[in-house]
Write a structure and sequence with these properties.
The protein has 11 helices and 8 strands. By secondary structure, it is an alpha/beta fold.
């Protein structure tokens, strides 16, 4: 199997930067592309004083990339049309000419068969979904579709393992993979409790954290994901399940105010010192220690 050495990461947002940084830290040659000069500049500032800086090249335009990548990982907005247009742009930029290049989407909820349906490169297309490696989430979902070449998943598994992360190859396509399906159910319940006035977002997080001994709750997780990203995913879910519109309306209030979570310094909490950090696993263990 062809060894992956050069990677193109499309999208320099929260997840794109994490993937680019992780790959660069393992010695891969990384091109990080984004149409937004502001996003690229922010990425440069994040990486400039780190050991990975020399492994990353920043590109504002796909046509400026003069090296043929072995692997392309797309992290753009959660929109079917946008992802299909990107595939066409990659083709127009002559980045798909090699017959062994792999193209992956980091989509949270869309299916790779739907995104690549109109493409001539569907056999090289696969979903490869990172969670948040920067925050300790080591699982990466690899989800081929029925027309994906059989050698793609093993190559991607080897790549993920080389990043010291844990690949899970799904047996079939499934919207939202494994963990995200479980997470969505928990998030839906949490948002409903807040909307119904049962408890505040902070109290709901407290209930979750102290009972599970986790250091973050549902609303802290939403801030980590990014409320704009969560809104796009919820809108996508609402297309097939109208009852999800309650979540759309709820998240829209925060997004319209520019409160997107950690990336903007405020969402449900204010950063860099969110109040939920006062509820730590150590505190739980201290207060739950049996009386001798």
């Amino acid at each position: 199997m062809k060894t992956i050495k050069t990677i193109l990461v499309v999208g320099a947002g929260t997840m794109g930067k994490q993937i680019a940084g992780r790959a660069a830290s393992k010695g891969y040659t990384v091109f990080l592309q984004d149409n937004s000069g502001q996003a690229l500049q922010a990425a440069k500032l994040d990486f400039q004083k780190t050991p990975v800086a020399s492994f990353i090249t920043y590109c504002a335009d796909l046509t400026s990339i003069d090296v043929s990548p072995d692997l392309i990982i797309e992290n753009i907005t959660e929109d079917l049309g946008a992802k299909r247009r990107l595939l066409k742009s990659l083709e127009n930029a002559q980045l798909l000419t090699r017959d062994d290049v792999i193209v992956c989407t980091n989509t949270s909820d869309l299916l790779p068969s739907a995104i690549s349906r109109q493409s001539d490169y569907k056999n090289r297309y696969c979903a490869m979904h990172f969670h948040s490696p920067e925050y300790g989430a080591t699982v990466v979902d690899i989800m081929p579709h029925r027309r994906t070449d059989p050698d793609i998943a093993p190559r991607l598994s080897d790549f993920i393992t080389s990043l010291d992360l844990d690949p899970i190859v799904l047996r079939k396509e499934n919207p939202a993979y494994i963990y995200n399906n479980i997470l969505n159910a928990m998030m839906d319940a949490s948002v409903r409790l807040a909307l119904q006035g049962v408890a505040s977002e902070e109290e709901i997080d407290k209930a979750w954290m102290l009972n599970t001994q986790m250091e973050i709750g549902p609303f802290g997780m939403l801030d980590l994901i990014g409320l704009d990203t969560a809104l796009a995913i919820t809108r996508q879910r609402a297309k097939s399940s109208p009852k999800q519109w309650f979540g759309v309306r709820y998240l829209e209030k925060f997004v319209k105010q520019g409160k997107l979570g950690i990336k903007t310094g405020e969402g449900f909490y204010k950063y860099p010192n969110p109040s939920y950090k006062n509820l730590t696993v150590e505190k739980f263990r201290a207060i739950s220690k049996p009386v001798e």
